[in-house]
Prior knowledge:
By secondary structure, the chain is α/β, with parallel strands linked by helices. The chain is built from 13 helices and 21 strands. It has helices spanning 15-24, 46-51, 53-71, 87-112, 171-174, 191-202, 222-235, 327-341, 370-375, 391-396, 424-436, 441-446, 456-465, and strands at 4-9, 29-33, 115-123, 128-133, 140-149, 153-155, 168-169, 183-187, 206-210, 238-240, 244-251, 254-261, 264-270, 272-275, 279-281, 314-316, 355-357, 362-367, 380-386, 402-408, 414-421. The protein is globular. The N and C termini lie far apart (68 Å). The chain binds nicotinamide-adenine-dinucleotide.
Amino acid sequence: MADYDVIVIGAGPAGYPAAIRCAQLGMKTAICDDFKNKDGKPSLGGTCLNVGCIPSKALLDSSKHFEHASHTYAAHGISTGPVEINVGTMIGRKDKIVGQLTGGIKQLLKGAGVDTFAAHGKLLADKQVELTPLDGSETRTISGDSIILAVGSVPIEIPNVAFDGQYIVDNAGALDLDKVPESLGVIGAGVIGLELGSVWRRLGSEVVLLEALPDFLGACDRDIARAAQREFKKQGLDIRLNARVKSAEVKGEEVQVTYEVDDTEHVVPFDRLLVAVGRRARTEGCVDDAAGVTLDDRGRIEVDEHCQTAASGVYAIGDAVRGPMLAHKGTEEGIAVAERIAGQASHVNLDVVPWVIYTEPEIAWVGINEQEAKERNIPIRTGSFPFAATGRALAMGETAGLVKMIAHAETDELLGVHIVGAQASELIAEAVVTMEFHGSSEDLARIVHAHPTMSEAVHEAALHLDGRAIHRAN
Ligand code: NAD
């Protein structure tokens, strides 16, 4: 008989909800995690809580207050005098929030009756898991009837640009700079580059983003990407497209970055360099060959639509498998797998997963964009509405951006909603719910939206799609 009904390897936003749900369903559950925080202490919650989603949001919020106090309060008649930032206090606040949340997970697991091991877990053959404790105590092996691999992802390194933890950093390093660098180079104008680049720009750094691709935010709808790019340019974010980084070298107190645009080589010095060119599944040392789990050509654990791996009784979820590397996608997979192990029907709809980039303005979308509809020959109708035409956005002084809506030309089913603007992260939820219920643009057009709110732009975009918007020309 196995020691546990289920063993979860990895306590990030995919693994810990899976463990809690397993325990709720009456299964004897264990979870292990090997993350150590900067004090060398075990800390649950994975990348998201420790060095990802949550700490970056804390710094985005602090830097947003700083920027508004410096630049926009005056228009409200508020005078502040010179505004200063104490980076140590800001980082301390961020660390406190992380500590609160990661400590909370420990309590939640305990409350649910899950056995938690601060240990590196490695899946061996026959659903045995080797645990190597972080405190140096003896390695032991436990067995489970089912295993859930939630091992997450690590930053990708590029050739000739090695992380040194001081001058050349990844997301974790960029969340812990001890002062505002005069200049910050960022390789990759993706989600992390834009969010952390925004933090340090707001605090006073000259930020240059070097992006290899010719299009800005290639995964976004073009209208949204263009509107966002305009706003970022106004803010002073220097985004250089088509820029292929060849190397980066620390020389004295700075990093010299060599990159090429259209065969012309450029060399730029920066105080600090953030490398944010994507992440890859973290599988090394987590799965023994004998376990029977297979990897795809991108090194991700191969799974079917129910997160079942090639090894019977072994599941994999979150960043380590196909699909978007988003915390909420991993969470839903974890819960669905727990329910399937318990014999229930459960499924995650990967077609309706919202994306959010927490810049100012925020960017959020769900479903397909106009380019994808064209590539897939899907007949569509589109509608849009600018926030500048809503009273609430004007009152808030947050008029940048728009809502764009895409519906099937024949059935009117809602296929995609794309937003750039204040509160886009919250507004997108309405689109997600509508799409999950296979709603139409007409449904959104006929639903009462509170006035004055930013959500009126969603309502008007739905009306515009049918040529009957009230507050803009059709
Ligand atoms: P990303 O895929 O969002 O962006 C990486 C960018 O780097 C791409 O635009 C790519 O073209 C560019 N790039 C790749 N190689 C390059 C090179 N050699 N030179 C210049 N540019 C290069 O990846 P990320 O920003 O590192 O984020 C990693 C993952 O973390 C993403 O999958 C993202 O989903 C997730 N994440 C999500 C959020 C969020 O949901 N708000 C926040 C942070 C991270």
